[in-house]
Amino acid sequence: MSNTKTWEGELSRLRDMEAQALSGGGEERLQKQREKGKMTARERVLYLLDEGSFVELNMLAEHQCRDFGMEKKRFPGDGVITGHGTIDGTRVFIYSEDASVLGGSTGKTHGAKIHYVLRLARECLVPVICLNDGAGARIQEGMDNVYGVTGQFYQTTLNSGIVPQVAAIMGDCTGGAVYSAALCDFIVQVEKTAHAFITGPAVIKEVTREEVSFEDLGGARVHSTRSGVTHLMAKDDRECLDLIRGLLQFLPQNNLEKPKRIETTDPEERETPELIDMVPIQQSKTYDMRQVIKTVVDNGDFFEIHPLFAQNLVVGFGRLGGRVAGFVANNPRILGGCLDIDSSDKGARFIRTCDAFNIPLITMVDVPGFLPGVRQEHGGIIRHGAKMLYAWTEATVPKIAMILRKMYGGSIPAMGVHQIGFDQVFAWPSAEMQMVGAEPSVKILYRRELAEAEDPKAFLEGKIKEYQDLYLTPYHSASRSVIDGVVHPKDTRKILIATLKILEGKAEPPRPYRKHGNIPL
User: Fold this and answer.
1) What mean pLDDT do residues 346-362 have?
2) Distance separating alpha carbons of residues 487 and 402, to the nearest angstrom
3) In b/e form, how buried is each residue of 52-80, taking b as 16+ CB within 10 angstroms?
4) In sequence order, what are the beta bridge partners of 400?
5) Which of 68, 289, 383, 463 has its CA 20 to 30 A from that of 13?
6) By C-alpha distance, which of 178, 193, 175 is closest to 233?
7) Mean pLDDT of the chain
8) Could you say which DSSP state residue 133 is in?
9) For a pLDDT cut of 90, what percent of the chain falls above it?
10) How far, rounded to the nearest angstrom, does the alpha carbon of residue 173 sit from its chain's CA centroid?
């Protein structure tokens, strides 16, 4: 029997198969996606990755379902594009769901392709980028879709703390599948064209009689401002992908490396005298802590995370002398800078993320304490606030505190002192530090004398001034080595850079063996 194969025939067949895979669900469906203001799944991959770097994997994989007419709906790639490439030279694995193919739904083959790149990312120790645009589990495949969806949760969780995982919600991300994004380190969501929720508006109306739109239920703005699910919000697909590219500049490839240090034109010895005018010495006046951070970091480049959620606490990345640092800072413009339930969760999560990927942490402190109130207490401020204490204690990266104006009560350990594991603690001359403020302290300490004083008001004012002069100055804390030094505001940048340098090779002694800790609920 003669061999009828020819190179021309085999290569022609390959071209045809690749063309089918490249066409997704067909040009008509791809065009509909573009008309909605969305890029196609493949366009997203090629836009994000360095030109010519993408290597596709499992391009021709297909579902094996034969029920409900599925044998007639076969698409090479099965609704998800997977592979690897580089972003500004950084190697990454990536998957991009294709809503033009069966709504981007996840079946067994679709899920297996994702599991594969997630596992490879862990084994190769490189970040993974997850571009979500799918309708959740593919019901035609019955219990096979459990394999497809649940396997993603398993692989993503195994990757956690080993390689950075960045998810983008760029279309529908609904049902159980939304947890694939929630398990990642960072989530970027596109406004108006992307929605994330467990149960949709129709089901909610049926069960609870509540009526809500897709946007009000799971849009980018609600998740960026209220639920805290979304870390960064983008106006369109391109901005979403640009944000991912920018974020990766501050992250290492894995937990065994440190973020890249880059050369900077901003002198390490640059003074910051403008901070004196920027931060009012009067406690009652507010200012924007983000401007303080931008003044201190290299070239004013501060990449804020969760900028619209729990704005009383600012977190994000910047560089000092070319070295990446994570910032955790109170913002007196919102709630006076008090810590509350949401800001505690926000801070704890960011602290643990930085610690996982060897990013030193700096706190910029101006906090009156935890927000008082029945709603906060009944909402669980005790367990939420405890998360920050747990995160600081657990973190082994260099930790530096800079106290600007005040630090009171339970917020003292929550924002950083030696006793919670901080390496260095500094304070401006304006800083006040004490477990209880002057007036309530005096009223307790001099209760009897106040009651017997001829002029209680004058007596109270005098004792408050005396208490402030004795206990609320940074010099009281410095005399007891609670802080390591009192810093002129103009030297803030220089001190932080010098401290980062000396702590760069920090090695903590071994801690007692444990399988893992048990972070508060």
Assistant:
1) 98
2) 9
3) eebebebbebebebeeeebeeeebbbbbb
4) 362, 424
5) 68
6) 193
7) 93
8) E
9) 75
10) 19
pLDDT in tens, 229-243: 999 999 999 999 999
Handedness of CA 235, 236, 237, 239 (dihedral sign): negative
d(CA 521, CA 519): 6
Cα separation, 168 vs 187, in Å, equals 6
Cβ-contact 49, 14 below 8 angstroms = no
What is the C-alpha to C-alpha distance for residues 408 and 404, in angstroms, rounded to an integer? 12
DSSP string, 222-249: HIIIII---SEEESSHHHHHHHHHHHHT
Under 8 Å between Cβ of 153 and 114: no
C-alpha 454/C-alpha 469 separation (Å) is 24
Task: Give the C-alpha separation, 37 to 235, whole Å.
Answer: 10
| Amino acid type, 510 | P
CATH 3.90.226.10 fits 274-435+473-502, yes or no: yes
Please name the amino acid found at residue 455. Answer: D
| Average pLDDT of the segment spanning 166-190 | 93
| Residue 406 predicted with pLDDT over 80 | yes
Residue 488 structure tokens: 């002129």
Return the closest-CA partner of residue 437 out of 276, 285, 313, 283. Answer: 283
Compute the Cα dihedral for 22, 28, 29, 32 and give only its sign: positive
Q: Which residues of the chain form CATH 3.90.226.10?
A: 7-248, 274-435+473-502
The residue whose two tokens read 């369109």 is 236
How many other C-beta atoms lie within 10 A of the C-beta of residue 379?
Answer: 14
How much is the pTM?
0.94
Q: How many CA atoms lie within 13 A of 320 on its CB side?
A: 26
Residues 6+ apart with CB under 8 A from 72: none
Burial of 518 (0-12, 13-18, 19+ CB in 10 A): exposed
Of 156, 15, 25, whose CA–CA distance to 100 is shortest?
Answer: 25
What is the three-class DSSP state of 280? Answer: coil
Q: What CATH code would you report for 7-248?
A: 3.90.226.10
For tokens 């009652």, name the residue: 284
Instruction: Return the ∠ at Cα 301 (arms to 486 and 351), rounded to 5°.
Output: 65
β-bridge mates for residue 320, sequence order: 323
3-state secondary structure of 159: helix
* Alpha-carbon span 30 to 108, nearest angstrom: 23
Residue type, 440: P
Residues 21, 60 contacting (CB under 8 angstroms): yes
Angle of helix 144-159 versus helix 108-124 axis, rounded to 10: 20
- Token readout for 34 is 């573009």
